[in-house]
Amino acid sequence: MRRFLPGADTAWGAAGLALLALGWTLVNWRSGPFVLPSLVETGAALLRLIADGSAVRASGATLLHAVGGAALGGGIGLLLGLAGGLWRAVGAALAPSATAILGVPPIAWIVLAFLWFGVGVTALLFTVTIATLPIIFAATLQGMRARDPALVEMARVFRLPRRTRLIRIILPELAVHIAPALSTAFAIAWKVALTAEVLGDGSGIGGGFATARAHLDLPEAMAWIVLVVILLLITDAALLGPLRRWISGQTDVSAPVAAPPCAGASLLREGER
Amino acid sequence: MLAFERVSWSVGGQPVLGGVDLCIGRGELVVLIGASGVGKSSVLRLAAGLLEPTGGHVARRARRCAMVFQDPRLLPWESALDNVGLPLEAHGVVRADARVRAGRWLARLGFRAEDLAKRPGQLSGGMKARVAVARAFVVEPDLVLLDEPFAALDLGLRRDMQALTRSLVVETGVAALFVTHDLTEAVRLADRILVLAGRPARITAAIGQRPVAAWADIWQAAAAFARRPDIAPVLAGLTELSPHAG
Question: Environment class of residue A206 by beta-carbon count within 10 Å: exposed (0-12), middle (13-18) or buried (19+)?
Fold first, then answer.
């Protein structure tokens, strides 16, 4: 199998985004600016938002809500998943509840959070946390149940302490199972944070989008959307990219190297004794 | 170092081992031979403490036990060097010291410096087997258990690893229990050969003299003769030799 270079991945990604931009331009050309503003108008609106500082302020608030909530939900989900994998009764007890939580639409959690905590940071963090927690829990639990029993046995024979087993064996084994779930949870975190901001106190990028929508300022509305996508891509690459590259490195092997002569033993072949 | 006193073991109510007696002393390499599925690996797992006997008693005087498995069971995300150093670090050795000791063992087993950083997926079968052997011996065990560790290797490489294992046991004075279904391998390695057979399985024969390796072919012919349908019942009625004291 040919080895796929990381630089080639970036080039293909850029090509994909370029195709997206081409599609955007075609829709604008066919349908007009009141359906989809042009890339130029959107870019100009984005630059205005950056220049007057509102983009930076809003980005900071949304980063806190999205990344902070995802970290909380992911951390709690990981711990509960580990516990569920180590003690079967815990996993069996938590799994139905996690499914139930996942089944509640995010909009319902947003309304409940505003009722319970008022319209503010706490409600926003809670909503993102509750939206991401069951995703990471389920992936972790599944990963724990799919662990290689051979490595478990090896750890027992060599009497490896729990801390070593967790850090050197369990977490690396889980990485393959958790990485896709982390990507999904991270994207959901941003969507839920934006939705909550639109419905909430007007903070963050969601608040900016809501204001632009109310003023029928489509270029600015699109500019806020482009901004959140850029932030999502940057934070995803910064936070999850290293994990994906590590996983990719585990499965990317070069051709086997010929074994060196064994020290202290002659190379006997059949019939040469 | 290790003694089985009338050890029995059942799974799902079905007896697998029925009254196994054996003992292994320091510096002794005992080979347990038997047909596939007779319970040889179960004996090893009982010796390692991975299973509890349903009858009898397993006495281990070894402070440190290590095992070489049929598949190497290396961590695919760690280098050969870190795989060997893992049990040392786990028991308090500083990482730098663990890597030095692991590096010495791997160099002894024929690894070049540029191979130390390779992950198991980048190693050949023979190299992975050497890493597994190094990981077992780096902790300076009192007892080493080997579960058909060279079964997947080609003939030449298997003989190299057999010779290496024998020399390591002699040099370190460790007690070793080696499981195989290959009589030639048993003859090459063993100070003593124990035959596990029957349902439930027990030690049915103990061969206490180590033949010279050059006699392996004669031994194999004798073993084939012993398996003849008209000869086997006669031999089965012969008295067992007593195992060595532990």
Answer: buried
